[in-house]
Design goal:
The protein has helices at residues 30-41, 49-52, 82-85, 111-118, 124-130, 135-151, 176-185, 193-208, 238-247, 342-365, 370-386; strands at 3-7, 14-20, 57-61, 63-64, 67-68, 73-78, 155-163, 166-167, 215-222, 252-257, 276-278, 282-284, 293-294, 297-298, 303-309, 319-322, 329-332. The protein is α+β, with helices and mostly antiparallel strands. The strands form 6 sheets. The chain has a 5-stranded antiparallel beta sheet. Strands 1-2-6-3 form a 4-stranded antiparallel beta sheet. The structure holds flavin mononucleotide and the ligand C=C(O[C@@H]1CC(C(=O)O)=C[C@@H](OP(=O)(O)O)[C@H]1O)C(=O)O. Its EC number is 4.2.3.5.
Length: 387
Protein backbone atom coordinates (compact mmCIF):
# COMPACT_ATOMS: atom_id res chain seq x y z
CA UNK A 1 0.00 0.00 0.00
CA UNK A 2 1.32 3.40 -1.01
CA UNK A 3 1.00 5.95 1.78
CA UNK A 4 2.62 9.10 3.13
CA UNK A 5 2.72 11.53 6.02
CA UNK A 6 4.11 15.04 6.17
CA UNK A 7 5.42 16.86 9.25
CA UNK A 8 6.85 20.29 9.93
CA UNK A 9 5.89 23.84 10.83
CA UNK A 10 5.91 26.82 8.49
CA UNK A 11 8.67 28.62 10.42
CA UNK A 12 10.27 25.53 11.96
CA UNK A 13 13.57 24.07 10.79
CA UNK A 14 12.22 21.85 8.01
CA UNK A 15 9.35 20.05 6.35
CA UNK A 16 9.61 16.28 6.20
CA UNK A 17 7.67 13.61 4.33
CA UNK A 18 7.82 9.84 4.58
CA UNK A 19 6.55 7.81 1.63
CA UNK A 20 6.00 4.11 2.09
CA UNK A 21 5.12 1.48 -0.49
CA UNK A 22 6.82 2.98 -3.55
CA UNK A 23 8.11 0.36 -5.98
CA UNK A 24 11.85 -0.30 -6.15
CA UNK A 25 13.84 0.72 -9.20
CA UNK A 26 12.08 4.00 -9.93
CA UNK A 27 14.59 6.54 -11.26
CA UNK A 28 14.28 9.84 -9.38
CA UNK A 29 16.62 12.78 -8.81
CA UNK A 30 16.41 15.74 -6.44
CA UNK A 31 16.64 18.00 -9.53
CA UNK A 32 13.40 16.64 -10.91
CA UNK A 33 11.56 17.24 -7.65
CA UNK A 34 13.24 20.63 -7.23
CA UNK A 35 11.91 21.78 -10.60
CA UNK A 36 8.35 21.22 -9.34
CA UNK A 37 9.16 22.83 -5.99
CA UNK A 38 10.42 25.91 -7.85
CA UNK A 39 7.27 25.97 -9.97
CA UNK A 40 5.13 25.89 -6.81
CA UNK A 41 7.05 28.82 -5.37
CA UNK A 42 6.37 30.90 -8.45
CA UNK A 43 3.32 32.42 -10.08
CA UNK A 44 2.39 36.07 -10.15
CA UNK A 45 0.93 37.35 -6.87
CA UNK A 46 3.18 35.66 -4.32
CA UNK A 47 4.41 37.60 -1.26
CA UNK A 48 7.68 38.28 0.58
CA UNK A 49 8.18 34.79 2.00
CA UNK A 50 8.90 33.32 -1.41
CA UNK A 51 11.88 35.68 -1.77
CA UNK A 52 13.38 34.06 1.34
CA UNK A 53 12.77 30.39 0.50
CA UNK A 54 14.51 28.35 -2.17
CA UNK A 55 12.96 24.93 -1.78
CA UNK A 56 15.24 21.97 -2.36
CA UNK A 57 14.59 18.36 -1.45
CA UNK A 58 17.06 16.08 0.27
CA UNK A 59 16.53 12.33 0.28
CA UNK A 60 17.37 11.03 3.74
CA UNK A 61 16.39 7.43 3.02
CA UNK A 62 14.93 5.06 0.45
CA UNK A 63 16.86 6.28 -2.63
CA UNK A 64 20.32 5.05 -3.65
CA UNK A 65 22.21 5.89 -6.80
CA UNK A 66 19.19 7.67 -8.26
CA UNK A 67 16.84 4.69 -7.81
CA UNK A 68 14.21 3.95 -5.18
CA UNK A 69 15.05 0.87 -3.10
CA UNK A 70 11.53 -0.12 -1.97
CA UNK A 71 12.27 1.07 1.58
CA UNK A 72 10.50 4.09 3.14
CA UNK A 73 11.59 7.31 1.42
CA UNK A 74 12.27 10.28 3.68
CA UNK A 75 12.34 13.70 2.01
CA UNK A 76 13.31 16.92 3.72
CA UNK A 77 12.95 20.56 2.65
CA UNK A 78 14.68 23.14 4.85
CA UNK A 79 12.89 26.38 5.78
CA UNK A 80 15.31 29.23 5.12
CA UNK A 81 13.09 31.57 7.14
CA UNK A 82 13.65 29.47 10.25
CA UNK A 83 16.78 31.41 11.21
CA UNK A 84 14.56 34.50 11.63
CA UNK A 85 12.10 32.57 13.82
CA UNK A 86 14.42 30.28 15.74
CA UNK A 87 13.76 31.88 19.11
CA UNK A 88 9.99 32.13 18.64
CA UNK A 89 9.83 28.54 17.40
CA UNK A 90 12.10 27.29 20.19
CA UNK A 91 10.97 24.14 21.95
CA UNK A 92 12.39 25.59 25.21
CA UNK A 93 10.49 26.65 28.37
CA UNK A 94 7.21 28.44 27.58
CA UNK A 95 8.03 31.40 29.87
CA UNK A 96 10.59 32.68 27.39
CA UNK A 97 7.89 32.92 24.75
CA UNK A 98 5.38 34.93 26.79
CA UNK A 99 5.94 38.15 24.91
CA UNK A 100 5.40 36.51 21.55
CA UNK A 101 2.12 34.73 22.18
CA UNK A 102 -0.38 35.09 19.30
CA UNK A 103 -3.84 35.80 20.70
CA UNK A 104 -5.43 37.40 17.63
CA UNK A 105 -7.16 34.87 15.33
CA UNK A 106 -7.25 35.70 11.61
CA UNK A 107 -10.61 35.22 9.87
CA UNK A 108 -10.45 32.58 7.13
CA UNK A 109 -7.71 30.59 8.88
CA UNK A 110 -7.74 27.61 11.26
CA UNK A 111 -6.66 30.02 14.05
CA UNK A 112 -9.77 30.32 16.23
CA UNK A 113 -11.31 26.88 15.77
CA UNK A 114 -7.87 25.24 16.09
CA UNK A 115 -6.98 27.13 19.29
CA UNK A 116 -10.30 26.19 20.92
CA UNK A 117 -10.08 22.58 19.73
CA UNK A 118 -6.53 22.00 21.02
CA UNK A 119 -6.86 24.28 24.08
CA UNK A 120 -4.01 26.54 22.97
CA UNK A 121 -3.56 30.01 24.41
CA UNK A 122 -0.93 30.64 21.73
CA UNK A 123 -2.48 30.52 18.26
CA UNK A 124 1.00 30.02 16.77
CA UNK A 125 0.66 26.35 17.74
CA UNK A 126 -2.13 26.14 15.17
CA UNK A 127 -1.10 28.53 12.42
CA UNK A 128 2.36 27.06 12.00
CA UNK A 129 0.93 23.74 10.89
CA UNK A 130 -2.22 24.95 9.12
CA UNK A 131 -0.10 27.15 6.83
CA UNK A 132 0.09 26.20 3.17
CA UNK A 133 3.86 25.97 3.61
CA UNK A 134 3.01 22.27 4.07
CA UNK A 135 2.16 22.07 0.37
CA UNK A 136 5.91 22.11 -0.44
CA UNK A 137 6.15 18.66 1.18
CA UNK A 138 3.08 17.50 -0.71
CA UNK A 139 4.58 18.60 -4.00
CA UNK A 140 7.72 16.59 -3.22
CA UNK A 141 5.57 13.53 -2.45
CA UNK A 142 3.31 13.99 -5.48
CA UNK A 143 6.24 14.52 -7.79
CA UNK A 144 7.64 11.17 -6.77
CA UNK A 145 4.27 9.68 -7.74
CA UNK A 146 4.34 11.63 -10.98
CA UNK A 147 7.70 10.00 -11.83
CA UNK A 148 6.02 6.62 -11.48
CA UNK A 149 3.14 7.68 -13.74
CA UNK A 150 5.59 8.94 -16.37
CA UNK A 151 7.32 5.56 -16.46
CA UNK A 152 3.92 4.07 -17.36
CA UNK A 153 3.28 6.64 -20.12
CA UNK A 154 0.82 8.71 -18.08
CA UNK A 155 1.13 12.49 -18.50
CA UNK A 156 -0.16 15.22 -16.22
CA UNK A 157 -0.95 18.81 -17.15
CA UNK A 158 -2.19 21.60 -14.88
CA UNK A 159 -3.21 25.10 -15.85
CA UNK A 160 -5.12 28.08 -14.50
CA UNK A 161 -8.62 28.71 -15.84
CA UNK A 162 -9.65 31.70 -13.75
CA UNK A 163 -8.15 34.37 -11.50
CA UNK A 164 -10.87 36.34 -9.69
CA UNK A 165 -13.19 37.85 -12.31
CA UNK A 166 -10.96 36.91 -15.29
CA UNK A 167 -11.75 33.60 -17.04
CA UNK A 168 -9.47 32.01 -19.65
CA UNK A 169 -10.67 30.72 -23.01
CA UNK A 170 -8.97 27.33 -23.29
CA UNK A 171 -9.19 25.19 -26.42
CA UNK A 172 -10.10 21.86 -24.86
CA UNK A 173 -8.92 19.86 -27.86
CA UNK A 174 -5.31 21.03 -27.55
CA UNK A 175 -2.86 18.17 -26.91
CA UNK A 176 -1.28 18.00 -23.44
CA UNK A 177 2.15 19.05 -24.70
CA UNK A 178 0.75 22.29 -26.15
CA UNK A 179 -1.26 23.10 -23.02
CA UNK A 180 1.76 22.40 -20.81
CA UNK A 181 4.00 24.54 -23.01
CA UNK A 182 1.62 27.51 -23.08
CA UNK A 183 0.90 27.32 -19.34
CA UNK A 184 4.62 26.93 -18.59
CA UNK A 185 5.41 30.19 -20.37
CA UNK A 186 2.76 32.14 -18.49
CA UNK A 187 3.30 34.13 -15.27
CA UNK A 188 0.04 32.70 -13.95
CA UNK A 189 0.17 29.25 -15.61
CA UNK A 190 -2.66 30.23 -17.96
CA UNK A 191 -2.48 28.95 -21.55
CA UNK A 192 -4.65 31.85 -22.83
CA UNK A 193 -2.31 34.81 -23.55
CA UNK A 194 -5.01 37.44 -23.58
CA UNK A 195 -6.54 36.32 -20.33
CA UNK A 196 -3.09 36.16 -18.75
CA UNK A 197 -2.54 39.90 -19.20
CA UNK A 198 -5.92 40.63 -17.62
CA UNK A 199 -5.17 38.22 -14.77
CA UNK A 200 -1.89 39.94 -13.96
CA UNK A 201 -3.71 43.28 -14.00
CA UNK A 202 -6.43 41.97 -11.68
CA UNK A 203 -3.77 40.74 -9.22
CA UNK A 204 -2.04 44.16 -9.33
CA UNK A 205 -5.35 45.88 -8.63
CA UNK A 206 -6.10 43.54 -5.73
CA UNK A 207 -2.65 44.21 -4.26
CA UNK A 208 -3.10 47.99 -4.59
CA UNK A 209 -6.45 47.91 -2.83
CA UNK A 210 -5.17 45.64 -0.04
CA UNK A 211 -7.34 42.78 -1.26
CA UNK A 212 -6.73 39.23 -2.53
CA UNK A 213 -7.98 36.93 -5.30
CA UNK A 214 -8.87 33.27 -5.74
CA UNK A 215 -9.51 31.33 -8.92
CA UNK A 216 -9.92 28.01 -10.68
CA UNK A 217 -7.30 25.57 -11.97
CA UNK A 218 -7.60 22.35 -13.93
CA UNK A 219 -5.57 19.15 -13.82
CA UNK A 220 -5.67 16.56 -16.60
CA UNK A 221 -4.14 13.09 -16.64
CA UNK A 222 -3.65 11.40 -20.03
CA UNK A 223 -2.90 7.75 -20.77
CA UNK A 224 -4.50 6.10 -17.74
CA UNK A 225 -5.54 2.47 -18.03
CA UNK A 226 -9.22 1.59 -17.76
CA UNK A 227 -10.13 0.22 -14.34
CA UNK A 228 -8.57 2.43 -11.64
CA UNK A 229 -10.85 2.86 -8.62
CA UNK A 230 -14.02 0.86 -8.14
CA UNK A 231 -17.80 1.19 -8.10
CA UNK A 232 -18.19 -1.44 -5.38
CA UNK A 233 -17.52 0.64 -2.26
CA UNK A 234 -17.81 4.37 -1.46
CA UNK A 235 -14.22 4.83 -0.40
CA UNK A 236 -12.81 3.09 -3.47
CA UNK A 237 -14.35 5.44 -6.03
CA UNK A 238 -11.65 7.27 -7.96
CA UNK A 239 -13.66 10.50 -8.32
CA UNK A 240 -14.35 10.68 -4.60
CA UNK A 241 -10.69 10.10 -3.79
CA UNK A 242 -9.54 12.77 -6.21
CA UNK A 243 -12.09 15.23 -4.86
CA UNK A 244 -11.04 14.51 -1.27
CA UNK A 245 -7.37 14.94 -2.10
CA UNK A 246 -8.03 18.22 -3.85
CA UNK A 247 -10.20 19.52 -0.98
CA UNK A 248 -7.35 18.73 1.41
CA UNK A 249 -5.28 21.48 -0.19
CA UNK A 250 -5.42 24.68 1.86
CA UNK A 251 -7.99 27.21 0.54
CA UNK A 252 -9.64 24.83 -1.97
CA UNK A 253 -13.42 25.20 -1.66
CA UNK A 254 -14.85 23.31 -4.63
CA UNK A 255 -13.97 20.43 -6.96
CA UNK A 256 -15.44 19.36 -10.29
CA UNK A 257 -14.81 16.27 -12.41
CA UNK A 258 -15.49 16.59 -16.15
CA UNK A 259 -18.45 18.90 -16.79
CA UNK A 260 -18.97 19.12 -13.04
CA UNK A 261 -21.55 21.71 -11.98
CA UNK A 262 -22.31 22.59 -15.62
CA UNK A 263 -23.88 19.12 -16.10
CA UNK A 264 -26.69 20.07 -13.72
CA UNK A 265 -28.02 22.69 -16.13
CA UNK A 266 -28.16 20.75 -19.42
CA UNK A 267 -30.05 17.67 -20.71
CA UNK A 268 -28.58 14.17 -20.50
CA UNK A 269 -28.11 13.94 -24.26
CA UNK A 270 -25.45 16.66 -23.90
CA UNK A 271 -23.79 15.13 -20.87
CA UNK A 272 -23.03 11.45 -21.48
CA UNK A 273 -20.24 10.12 -23.67
CA UNK A 274 -21.14 7.56 -26.34
CA UNK A 275 -19.11 4.34 -26.56
CA UNK A 276 -17.21 3.48 -29.75
CA UNK A 277 -14.76 0.68 -30.61
CA UNK A 278 -11.69 0.57 -32.81
CA UNK A 279 -9.64 -2.66 -33.14
CA UNK A 280 -6.35 -0.73 -32.72
CA UNK A 281 -7.19 1.55 -29.83
CA UNK A 282 -10.00 -0.46 -28.23
CA UNK A 283 -13.01 1.22 -26.65
CA UNK A 284 -13.09 5.00 -26.80
CA UNK A 285 -15.38 8.01 -26.53
CA UNK A 286 -15.96 10.77 -29.06
CA UNK A 287 -16.44 13.21 -26.15
CA UNK A 288 -15.11 13.29 -22.57
CA UNK A 289 -17.73 15.14 -20.55
CA UNK A 290 -17.44 12.63 -17.72
CA UNK A 291 -13.82 13.65 -17.19
CA UNK A 292 -12.49 10.12 -17.63
CA UNK A 293 -14.37 8.53 -14.72
CA UNK A 294 -17.69 6.63 -14.72
CA UNK A 295 -19.06 4.84 -11.65
CA UNK A 296 -15.88 5.69 -9.75
CA UNK A 297 -13.71 3.83 -12.32
CA UNK A 298 -11.29 5.32 -14.86
CA UNK A 299 -12.71 4.70 -18.36
CA UNK A 300 -9.53 5.26 -20.37
CA UNK A 301 -10.27 8.87 -21.36
CA UNK A 302 -8.23 11.70 -19.81
CA UNK A 303 -9.12 12.40 -16.19
CA UNK A 304 -10.16 16.05 -15.83
CA UNK A 305 -10.37 17.65 -12.36
CA UNK A 306 -10.98 21.34 -11.61
CA UNK A 307 -10.67 23.08 -8.25
CA UNK A 308 -11.85 26.46 -6.98
CA UNK A 309 -9.55 28.32 -4.59
CA UNK A 310 -10.89 31.00 -2.27
CA UNK A 311 -9.09 34.37 -2.10
CA UNK A 312 -6.16 34.47 0.36
CA UNK A 313 -7.73 35.24 3.76
CA UNK A 314 -4.95 37.43 5.19
CA UNK A 315 -5.71 40.89 3.83
CA UNK A 316 -3.87 44.20 3.98
CA UNK A 317 -7.40 45.62 4.19
CA UNK A 318 -8.22 44.60 7.77
CA UNK A 319 -11.12 42.37 8.86
CA UNK A 320 -12.77 42.43 12.30
CA UNK A 321 -11.77 39.81 14.85
CA UNK A 322 -11.61 39.29 18.62
CA UNK A 323 -8.53 38.81 20.84
CA UNK A 324 -8.89 35.43 22.60
CA UNK A 325 -7.12 36.67 25.75
CA UNK A 326 -8.81 40.05 26.29
CA UNK A 327 -12.00 39.35 24.27
CA UNK A 328 -11.52 42.86 22.87
CA UNK A 329 -12.27 43.48 19.19
CA UNK A 330 -9.38 44.34 16.85
CA UNK A 331 -8.76 44.72 13.13
CA UNK A 332 -6.79 41.79 11.66
CA UNK A 333 -4.11 43.11 9.33
CA UNK A 334 -0.89 41.69 7.96
CA UNK A 335 2.83 42.27 7.53
CA UNK A 336 3.33 40.01 4.52
CA UNK A 337 1.11 37.67 2.52
CA UNK A 338 0.43 36.31 -0.93
CA UNK A 339 -2.17 38.32 -2.86
CA UNK A 340 -2.99 35.38 -5.14
CA UNK A 341 -1.63 31.83 -4.96
CA UNK A 342 -3.81 30.12 -7.58
CA UNK A 343 -0.83 29.19 -9.85
CA UNK A 344 0.99 27.76 -6.82
CA UNK A 345 -2.12 25.81 -5.81
CA UNK A 346 -2.33 24.47 -9.37
CA UNK A 347 1.14 22.91 -8.96
CA UNK A 348 -0.02 21.42 -5.65
CA UNK A 349 -3.13 20.15 -7.47
CA UNK A 350 -0.97 18.34 -10.03
CA UNK A 351 0.93 16.72 -7.16
CA UNK A 352 -2.11 15.52 -5.23
CA UNK A 353 -3.77 14.16 -8.38
CA UNK A 354 -0.53 12.34 -9.30
CA UNK A 355 -0.45 10.84 -5.84
CA UNK A 356 -4.05 9.56 -5.89
CA UNK A 357 -3.59 8.07 -9.36
CA UNK A 358 -0.38 6.32 -8.30
CA UNK A 359 -2.13 4.88 -5.24
CA UNK A 360 -4.99 3.60 -7.41
CA UNK A 361 -2.53 2.13 -9.93
CA UNK A 362 -0.55 0.25 -7.31
CA UNK A 363 -3.75 -0.94 -5.70
CA UNK A 364 -4.93 -2.46 -8.98
CA UNK A 365 -1.65 -3.81 -10.34
CA UNK A 366 0.54 -4.30 -7.27
CA UNK A 367 4.18 -5.17 -7.79
CA UNK A 368 7.26 -4.41 -5.71
CA UNK A 369 9.55 -3.29 -8.50
CA UNK A 370 9.01 -0.95 -11.42
CA UNK A 371 9.76 -3.85 -13.78
CA UNK A 372 7.01 -5.98 -12.28
CA UNK A 373 4.51 -3.13 -12.33
CA UNK A 374 5.27 -2.21 -15.94
CA UNK A 375 4.78 -5.79 -17.09
CA UNK A 376 1.44 -6.03 -15.33
CA UNK A 377 0.17 -2.72 -16.70
CA UNK A 378 1.24 -3.58 -20.26
CA UNK A 379 -0.45 -6.95 -20.10
CA UNK A 380 -3.63 -5.37 -18.79
CA UNK A 381 -3.62 -2.64 -21.45
CA UNK A 382 -3.45 -5.29 -24.19
CA UNK A 383 -6.22 -7.31 -22.64
CA UNK A 384 -8.53 -4.33 -22.03
CA UNK A 385 -8.22 -3.26 -25.68
CA UNK A 386 -9.65 -6.51 -27.01
CA UNK A 387 -11.93 -7.87 -24.28
C1 LIG B 1 0.00 27.84 -2.14
C2 LIG B 1 -0.82 28.54 -1.11
C3 LIG B 1 -0.34 29.73 -0.57
C4 LIG B 1 -1.08 30.40 0.40
N1 LIG B 1 -0.60 31.58 0.89
C5 LIG B 1 -1.30 32.23 1.87
C6 LIG B 1 -0.82 33.47 2.40
O1 LIG B 1 0.23 33.98 2.01
N2 LIG B 1 -1.56 34.05 3.37
C7 LIG B 1 -2.73 33.51 3.80
O2 LIG B 1 -3.37 34.09 4.67
N3 LIG B 1 -3.21 32.35 3.32
C8 LIG B 1 -2.52 31.71 2.36
N4 LIG B 1 -3.02 30.52 1.84
C9 LIG B 1 -4.33 30.03 2.28
C10 LIG B 1 -4.35 29.46 3.67
O3 LIG B 1 -3.33 28.54 3.90
C11 LIG B 1 -5.70 28.77 3.92
O4 LIG B 1 -6.73 29.57 3.52
C12 LIG B 1 -5.85 28.45 5.40
O5 LIG B 1 -4.89 27.49 5.78
C13 LIG B 1 -7.25 27.98 5.79
O6 LIG B 1 -7.55 26.78 5.16
P1 LIG B 1 -8.95 26.57 4.40
O7 LIG B 1 -9.06 27.79 3.51
O8 LIG B 1 -8.74 25.34 3.63
O9 LIG B 1 -10.01 26.55 5.40
C14 LIG B 1 -2.31 29.86 0.85
C15 LIG B 1 -2.78 28.66 0.31
C16 LIG B 1 -2.05 28.00 -0.67
C17 LIG B 1 -2.57 26.72 -1.25
C1 LIG C 1 5.43 29.63 2.94
C2 LIG C 1 4.56 29.40 1.97
O1 LIG C 1 3.32 29.95 1.89
C3 LIG C 1 2.85 30.64 3.00
C4 LIG C 1 1.45 30.19 3.23
C5 LIG C 1 0.78 31.02 4.24
C6 LIG C 1 -0.47 30.49 4.81
O2 LIG C 1 -0.98 31.11 5.77
O3 LIG C 1 -0.98 29.48 4.33
C7 LIG C 1 1.28 32.25 4.62
C8 LIG C 1 2.54 32.81 4.07
O4 LIG C 1 3.62 32.53 4.93
P1 LIG C 1 4.28 33.64 5.86
O5 LIG C 1 3.24 33.94 6.90
O6 LIG C 1 5.52 33.04 6.44
O7 LIG C 1 4.57 34.84 4.98
C9 LIG C 1 2.88 32.14 2.76
O8 LIG C 1 4.16 32.56 2.33
C10 LIG C 1 4.85 28.51 0.86
O9 LIG C 1 3.98 28.40 -0.02
O10 LIG C 1 5.94 27.90 0.82
Amino acid sequence: MLRFLTAGESHGPALTAIVEGMVAGLPVTPDYINSMLAKRQGGYGRGGRMKIEKDEVQFLSGVRGGLTTGSPITMQILNQDWTNWQEIMSAGPAARLDQRVVTRPRPGHADLAGAIKYNHQDIRNVLERSSARETAARVAVGTLARRLLEELGIKLVGFVRRIGPVAAAVDDSQPPEVLAHLAGQSQVLCPDNQAEAAMVKAIDQARESGDSLGGVFEIRAYGLPIGLGSHVQWDRKLDSRLAGAMMSVQAIKGVEIGLGFAAAAIPGSQVHDEILYDPDKGYYRPTNRAGGIEGGISNGEPVVVRAAMKPIPTLYQPLRSVDIKTKEPFLASVERSDVCAVPAACVVGEAVVAWELAVALLEKFGGDSLKELKERVNQWQQWARQV
